[in-house]
Amino acid sequence: MKVTAALVTYRWARALPYSLTSVDSQTRKPEEEVIALKPSGDSSEEVMRSFSSQLPIKLVVQEKGNFTNAVQMAIDNAKGVILFHDDDAVAEERWGEKHENLFDFLPNVGGIGGKSHKAYIKSGEVVKTHEPFYDEKPPRNAFYRKPLPECVNYCG
Q1: How far apart are CA 8 and CA 69, in angstroms?
Q2: Nearest alpha-carbon partner for 15 in 93, 132, 120
Q3: Per CATH, the architecture of 3-113 is what?
Q4: 4 pLDDT higher than 90
Q5: Average pLDDT in the chain
Q6: Where residue 143 falls among pLDDT bands split at 50, 70, 90?
Q7: Is 93 exposed, middle or buried (0-12, 13-18, 19+ CB in 10 A)?
Q8: CB contact set of 43 (below 8 Å; sequence gap of 6+)
Q9: Half-sphere exposure for 79 (CA within 13 Å, toward CB)
C-alpha cells in the first residue's frame, strides 16, 4: 500500500522541524510527504529544503485561496492512502504503521481519525504527554462521533 503523509502550512516555520522530524522517525515511513504551502516569508521553504534528504517532499505552492483549497491541493498531489498531519503537531512513532494496518483491516473505510495528546517544547526538545488535547466526551451523542465497533480500543 502506498502511503502519503500530507500537511498544509502557513506561517509555521518554527513548528515544522518538529512535525517533519516526527514523520521521518516513523516505524513505517510514507513514500512521500506532500506539503501545501502558502508562502509567507517565514522561512518555511528553507525548513522543507533542510528535510529534503530525509523525506521525499513534494512541495505544492498555494498562490491563492484558503485552507480548504490547500487541503484539496494536497489531496490532488498525493498518491495512495493520505495521512494528514498538522504543521504544529508531532506524530506518534507508530502513527503511519497503525493507520496502514487499519486501512488493511477495514478496506471499505474512506477516512480514519485518531486521538491527539498535548506536547510541549522544553529546551528545544519535544516533551510528549498523555493529556488529551480535546475533551474525551463528544459534545453530543451521534453515531458518527463514535469509533467503529471493531476499533473501540484500538488507540489504547
Answers
A1: 10
A2: 120
A3: Alpha-Beta Complex (3.90)
A4: yes
A5: 88
A6: low
A7: middle
A8: 13
A9: 8
Q: Assess whether pLDDT exceeds 50 at residue 156.
A: no
Contacts 24+ apart (CB under 8 A), 72-78: 73/36, 74/6, 74/7, 74/8, 74/34, 74/35, 74/36, 75/6, 77/34, 77/36, 78/4, 78/6, 78/32, 78/34
Q: Which residue has the cell 518555511?
A: 44
Q: Domain residues of the chain, as ranges?
A: 3-113
Cβ atoms of 71 and 62 within 8 Å: the answer is no
Q: Which residues contact 9 (CB under 8 A, 6 or more apart)?
A: 16, 35, 36, 37, 38, 44, 87
pTM, two decimal places: 0.81
